[in-house]
Amino acid sequence: MGRDAILGGLVLLLACGEGGDIDTTPLLDAGRDAAAEDGGAGADGGAGADGGADMADAGGDLGDDAGLGPAPRALGIEGPDVVDAGGRVSLTCRVEFVGPAAELGFAWTVDGVPIEGADGADIAWTAPDLDAEVELACTVEDPAGRTSSVTRTLTVVVGLPALVARWRFDGDVSDASGNGLDGMGLGGAAPAMDRAGRASGALRFDGRAVVSVPHDDRLTLADAYTLAMWVRPEAPTDSDRVLLTKSEGTAGNYSLEINASTASFFQEQLLYVHDTAGGNWSAIASSTPLAADTWFHIAITVAADDTLVGYVDGRRELSGMGVADPATNTSALRIGSGRLGFVGVLDDVRIYDAALSEAQVAALAAPPP
Question: Three-state SS for 50?
Answer without folding.
Answer: helix
